[in-house]
Amino acid sequence: MKTDIIGQSQDRVDGKLKVTGRAMYPGDRQEENLAHGYLLTSKVAKGSIQAMNTSVAERAPGVVAIYTPFNPLKLYYGLEPSEGASSGETVPPLQDQKIQYHGQIIGLVVADSFEQARDAARLVRTQYQAEDPVASWEKGMENAFAPESVDKEKATVKILAEGVQSIDDAIKSSPLMIDVTYTEPIYHHNPMEPHATTAVWQGDRLTIYDATQGVVGQRRDVASVLGIDEDMVRVLCPFVGGAFGCKGSMWMFSPLTAAAARALNRPVKTIVTREQMFTLVGHRPALIQQLTLGANPDGTLQAVKHDVQSTVSFTKVFVEAAAHRTSRLLYKSPNIQVSQKLVRLNVGGPTFMRAPGCAPGMFSLECAMDELAVKSGIDPVELRTKNDAQVYPGKNVPWSSKHLVECYQLGAEKFGWSKRNPNPGAVQAGDWSIGMGMASALYPAHRNRASAKVRLQADGTAQVSSATQDLGTGTWTVLAMVGAESLGLPVEKIRTDLGDSALPPAPTSGGSTTVATVTPAIQKAAESAKKKLIQVAVREKKSPFFGMKIEDVSYGEGQLVGGGKSADFGSVLNGIGRSAVEAIETAAPGEEEEKYAFHSFGAQFCEVKVNRWTGEVRLQRFTSVMDIGTVVNHKTARSQIMGGIVFGIGMALTEGTILERSGRYANANFSDYLVATNADVPFIDIHFLNKPDTIFNPIGARGIGEIGITGTPAAIANAVFNATGKRVREFPILPEKLLPAAANQPAISMSASKGPLKT
Ligand code: MOS
Question: Which fold would CATH assign to domain 448-588?
Answer without folding.
Answer: Aldehyde Oxidoreductase; domain 4 (3.30.365)
